[in-house]
Amino acid sequence: MDQETCWRAVVARDARFDGRFFTGVTSTGIYCRPVCPARTPKRENVVFHPSAAAAEAAGLRACLRCRPETAPEMGAWRGTSNTVSRALALIEAGALDTGKADAMAARLGMGERQLRRLFRQHLGTAPVSVAQTRRVLLAKQLIHETDLSMAEVAMASGFGSVRRFNETFQALYGRAPSDLRRRKVDAEAGGVIKIGLSYRAPYDWPAMMSALAMRDVADEIVVDGAWTRRLRLDVDETDGAVTVRPAGEGRAAVEARIENLKALPGVLARVRRVFDLAADPEAITRDLSADPVLHAGITAMPGLRLAGEWIDAGEDAPSNRLTTKDAALLARAERWRPWRAYGALYWALSEERRNDRSA
Questions:
Q1: What are φ and ψ of residue 76, in 5° steps?
Q2: In CATH terms, is domain 82-145+147-180 a member of 1.10.10.60?
């Protein structure tokens, strides 16, 4: 991170940097998003962190005003480390809620020390800190946005017990988690959990819904601009369903009906993957526009995303996967790394446009 660039982004409240770094204010012990509406702190009191987990590992607590848990997921580094990408997917699915870091490292084919080194290089902190922050920020979002009881929030965010949940929030915020809820709570009919997931604009929702509607998946359906997935106990550790629809710029609305609240983190992680919510359109556009064939397609259709699989056991990051056997395209695609899959998507669209013009 370039310190002066980060500082200028904070002063300007530049939304392009939202989620790319977090601003730690040493005088208050709080960390914020670059777009926080609070008064800009003094420069000498500011330390920048590459992730929310790094900020919390430094002893800072999340701002209650700008709510770092609602920032777009940081995806700018994705593709630079396939191992970190795979490890984060495991953490998002709850690998460190019940297991240990050395077991997760073994699943990735490396030692725990090497995995910690990669995490510190890319995220500024260790895997266990990332998992802890994921739990805390999800719990904080559930407190603010849902009507779940505190016990249900503890279960749904991956804490092993209500006691651990209470102790963690007391240590971080100096208050009970229930004190963070600033509104009266009325039970939601039907046991529906409604929560928003952030992403970086632009996002071509019609193209995504069209791609999902064309898939031959028995448990998925797209109706009236909303995608619904049936949840199965043998796959998702719960029965129920999850529905996703656009909810304004930079926000996807998720409604989940689940019987086992412990399954919620895994369900949300899979929703993020299916809808490619961690994509960084600015980085993709910057890198792929160097190819003159792709440049026109990116300009014409910004915000295209890759429809992901609900269950993904691939070794490579989805952004870099290719399924083509075309030797010439494979050779050209080497210059598209780490966004080869996006390059192939725009390439196919460019081919369609050329064929339409020649017809």
A1: -60, -30
A2: yes
Closest CA to 30 of 3, 67, 83: 67
The encoded tokens of residue 75 equal 């995806």
- The per-residue pLDDT for range 206-262, each reduced to its tens digit, is 999 999 999 989 999 999 999 999 999 999 999 999 999 999 889 999 999 999 999
Amino acid at 100: K
**Residue extents of the structural domains in the chain:** 3-62, 82-145+147-180, 190-274, 281-358
First-residue to last-residue Cα distance in the chain: 49
Q: Do 80 and 338 meet the contact criterion of CB atoms below 8 Å apart?
A: yes
Q: Give the model confidence (pLDDT) of 53-98 as tens digits.
A: 999 999 999 999 999 999 987 544 454 567 887 888 888 878 888 7
pLDDT of amino acid 336: 93
Structure tokens at 8: 């200028």
Q: In what order do the strands lie in the sheet with 30-32?
A: 46-49, 22-25, 30-32, 61-62
Cis status of the peptide bond prior to 50, with omega within 30 of 0:
no
Calculate the average pLDDT of the chain: 89
The highest-level CATH class for domain 190-274 is alpha beta
| 3-62 and 82-145+147-180 in the same fold | no
Matching CATH number, 3-62, of 2.60.40.2700, 3.40.50.2300, 2.60.40.10, 3.40.10.10: 3.40.10.10
Q: What is the pTM of this model?
A: 0.88
Q: How many CB atoms within 10 Å of residue 42?
A: 10
- The reported pLDDT for the residue numbered 166 is 95
